[in-house]
Amino acid sequence: MNRFIRSGDPFIWVTGSALAFALLLVAGLLGLVLVSGLGFFWPRSMVEISLADGRKLAGSIEARERIPDPQSGKKTTGSWRFKLKQGNRDLYGSDFVWVDEKDVRERAYPKEIAVIERREWGAFHGRPLKVLEGETVVAEGVDRSWALLIQRLPAALSVYDQARRIEKDELGGINFKKEKIRLKRRSLELKGHSKGSALDALKAEEERLQKLFDKQMEALAALRGTVRTNVVFVSADGQEKQVALTNIVRAYRPNELSFFGRLGLYSSRLWEFVSEDPRESNTEGGVFPAIFGTVMMVFIMSLVVTPFGVLAAFYLREYARQGPFVSAVRIAVNNLAGVPSIVFGVFGLGFFVYIVGGSIDRLFFPEALPSPTYGTGGILWASLTLALLTVPVVIVATEEGLAAVPRGAREASLALGATKFETMWRVVLPAVFPSVLTGLILAMARAAGEVAPLMITGVVKLAPALPIDEFPPFFHLERKFMHLGFHIYDVGFQSPNVEAAQPMVYTTTILLLVVVVALNLTAIIVRNRLSKKLRTSGL
Fold first, then answer.
1. The domain containing residue 56 runs over which residues?
2. pLDDT at res. 156
């Protein structure tokens, strides 16, 4: 036995077992997230049930469990219940209901049960009763109403998209220009110009924009007036609900869909999730603004943290005289990596937002005060805060790379007549660049998942506009933004409809993991190609 222990084989088994256990935990976590998240978009069959008390419900079965015993706290044997997603929140007050299986008298899967995804109040489960054009009934009966609904829905969706384009582009552009004119007029007033040709020109331009705004509003009203179709639906228990056709996002009958039909619907819903704006307090729709905000924030952070981290590491390793002071600085840098992220958030709020941003407003945007421009949270300040949070990682990784560069390479460069700067720039920096990218990969992975500092430096539940648009100066770094990490927190803990929002937590988690992996893979590919290039060059 002693010989076996001294051979080192037990240590190999212990370390291998620890690795296998860790991999098993990671695989289990990823499996749970993937199954719970990706399964959310698959259209489930609709069941219509009749209960012992005479009630009727229709929906999809989301979960099944044994009924817990309220006396002992343990689950009873033989008694089961299932969780039914009944929808129709405006009729019942909640999307889900628990049903005891012993109370079910009849189950059916009728093909005419439809799922109507609405822009407000979630999904409606029921049958179409009639179709109205204004006050006129144009179709009655389940089949005729459904056929007319499917026929007219694409045109209604097109009208809705056109109306949104007018609101965001035309009306948004006019409002943007009017705000610029207001600020120019205010700037002239602060300088003491109460009259003059400049003010008259601004007033004339504002009147022209107002006329154009009124014209666009008339066009928008006329466009919306082209769709006057309303559909009356009836729920399983006989309650009627009238829904405007423009309020419908998608309508389908899951019980009559084939496998490929379900697959097509699954792809459509998945694409909507990654390409559309959220709705219903972020519990439905897409998360594109959050994806955009997360990626843009990471890129800005990377552009800031890389040069500062590299320059600091070069100074500490190549230029600073080694001694107690430099050692203290290194200790401080290492300790910064362990400071709680919320501390960096408080610092970012106090320094970047209030001091730097407030000073910028007083110097360059006095006409906008007291409404702050840069003196409030925004994507720039959030990115700088995360750059400060992750700069120790880049410094440490770069210093390790500098230590690995052979001293002979520096001496050979200096012997050939190169200056200290030329040696650093042309010899040492290319050799250490893979280590810089390694530090950047670690920094990006941490920054993409941070939430606490962002909550007080610029992230919001719903951003009205992206930080990049078609209006000059095109990059609006002062704007607030959405973030996938904060979206997970908001949907999971701040949603007014927690049960309906739970699948969105898993789907957004998957998306955040995909974004982080994609960013890291990009940096890893660049690092590997650079390392290969440097090896072939003989460095």
1. 47-125
2. 92
